[in-house]
């Protein structure tokens, strides 16, 4: 038990976000309108994207470099906005329908019924437009309640790009304003992909976002598979109209920094970005894009199963959060391995938890201790019967 404590990072009780001091008690509260755990509060002060020697900071700077060298009319850059935003900013302002799943307590971290941890950097679009910005990049940490595996983590980073055009821009081209913006957007992002990766196979996939139309995703061919790296599109006219830009068109994109960095640096597990182990951090330095990460010796995983009868209120995200709350980054993966309903209509789930440290080998004692804590919390929090 002592050993476990030693590896836990201390949690500061006050963090500074966008120049404002925020106390733990403002973010984590025992209250039905709040679902932020301590493990998430501890991420708020990390600011990985603002570290020049961290893969995410190196990537951010390389993207800045592309925009600076490509556009004579400079994009303004922001990377220090507080991730604490209102429901209005995160959802209403970008036209997310009132019944959209992303608004649920199961998908998003709420501080209270009107305040949340942004789930995308698009939360800042409307305010920036209102303030008169027309070309900008906003980088920041974003938060999703989610499953546990090598490419999903409840905290990650996005960069938003936004460009407003006026009639002079598209009139000269002789093409329809929306087509003009969509063409400029694709050219910009294809150029960015080449700047970062050199020659790569990429493809555009049509998709849907409430705030853009048409909407696209860019996929990059990596390790024999297509990887989605960003979403983008031509901004819905309603957003421009509401924010004083009725006579303009615009495009926007939101890219996932971890996804791109995993490809660029060959980083196999998304948890590594949060590692303070010197064997990780010492491999990256300012301005050095595309240095391939050399894995330090991989320690063996340890698998533990847990089965219980679920009830109506049980969700997998809630279960994953219990696991993360107990094991932190020692939880590598949670998989549903068995799911059946008996004659009485009761449903049983069996989850297999993979525990592994990227930094050291775990003792049996330590893992058993974690598993018992998970069992205990599952029973108490979800009121379910362990089998
Ligand atoms: C969005 O968040 C939109 N706001 C993007 C956007 C902006 C579209 C502006 C149009 C205009 P999405 O949820 O798909 O979309 O996330 C965007 C990118 O973030 C993804 O392509 C992916 O690269 C990354 N991403 C999303 N979820 C995760 C996750 N759980 N872990 C790591 N990266 C993620
Ligand atoms: Mg997507």
From TrEMBL:
Its EC number is 6.1.1.20. Coiled coil: none annotated. The keyword ATP-binding applies. The keyword Mitochondrion applies. Residues 297-387 form the FDX-ACB domain. One of its GO terms (cellular component) is mitochondrial matrix. It is an enzyme of class 6 (ligase). InterPro entries: aa-tRNA-synth_II, aa-tRNA-synth_II/BPL/LPL, Fdx_antiC-bd, Fdx_antiC-bd_sf, Phe-tRNA-synth_IIc_mito, Phenylalanyl-tRNA_Synthase. It holds the Pfam family FDX-ACB. Keywords: Aminoacyl-tRNA synthetase, ATP-binding, Ligase, Mitochondrion, Nucleotide-binding, Protein biosynthesis, Transit peptide. Residues 140-301 form the Aminoacyl-transfer RNA synthetases class-II family profile domain. It catalyses: tRNA(Phe) + L-phenylalanine + ATP = L-phenylalanyl-tRNA(Phe) + AMP + diphosphate + H(+). Its main location: mitochondrion. It comes from the Eukaryota. It is found in: Mitochondrion matrix. One of its GO terms (biological process) is phenylalanyl-tRNA aminoacylation. Is responsible for the charging of tRNA(Phe) with phenylalanine in mitochondrial translation. Belongs to the class-II aminoacyl-tRNA synthetase family. This is phenylalanine--tRNA ligase. It comes from Quillaja saponaria (Soap bark tree).
């Amino acid at each position: 038990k002592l050993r476990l404590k030693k590896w836990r990072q201390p949690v500061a009780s006050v963090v500074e976000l966008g120049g404002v001091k925020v106390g733990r008690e403002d973010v984590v509260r025992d209250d039905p309108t709040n679902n932020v755990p301590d493990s998430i509060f501890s991420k708020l002060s990390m600011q990985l994207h603002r570290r020049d020697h961290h893969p995410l900071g190196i990537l951010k700077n390389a993207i800045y470099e592309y925009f600076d060298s490509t556009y004579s009319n400079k994009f303004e850059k922001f990377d220090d906005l507080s991730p604490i935003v209102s429901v209005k900013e995160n959802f209403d302002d970008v036209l997310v329908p009132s019944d959209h799943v992303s608004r649920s307590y199961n998908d998003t971290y709420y501080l209270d019924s009107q305040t949340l941890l942004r789930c995308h950097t698009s939360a800042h679009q409307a305010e920036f437009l209102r303030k008169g910005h027309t070309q900008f990049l906003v980088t920041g940490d974003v938060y999703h309640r989610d499953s546990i595996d090598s490419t999903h983590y409840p905290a990650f980073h996005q960069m938003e790009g936004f460009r407003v055009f006026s009639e002079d821009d598209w009139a000269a081209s002789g093409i329809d304003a929306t087509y003009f913006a969509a063409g400029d957007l694709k050219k910009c992002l294809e150029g960015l992909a080449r700047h970062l990766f050199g020659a790569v196979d990429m493809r555009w996939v049509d998709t849907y976002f409430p705030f853009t139309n048409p909407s696209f995703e860019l996929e990059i061919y990596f390790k024999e598979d297509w990887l989605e790296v960003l979403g983008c599109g031509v901004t819905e006219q309603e957003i421009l109209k509401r924010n004083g830009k009725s006579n303009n068109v615009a495009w926007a994109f939101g890219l996932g920094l971890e996804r791109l960095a995993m490809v660029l640096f060959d980083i196999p597990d998304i948890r590594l970005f949060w590692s303070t182990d010197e064997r990780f951090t010492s491999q990256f330095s300012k301005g050095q894009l595309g240095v391939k990460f050399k894995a330090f010796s991989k320690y063996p995983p340890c698998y533990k199963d847990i089965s219980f009868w679920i009830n109506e209120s049980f969700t997998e995200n809630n279960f994953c959060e219990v696991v993360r709350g107990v094991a932190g980054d020692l939880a590598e993966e949670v998989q549903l391995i068995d799911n059946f309903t008996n004659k009485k209509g009761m449903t049983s789930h069996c989850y297999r938890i993979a525990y592994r440290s990227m930094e050291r080998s775990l003792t049996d004692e330590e893992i058993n201790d974690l598993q018992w804590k998970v069992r205990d919390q599952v029973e108490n929090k979800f009121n379910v019967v362990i089998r």
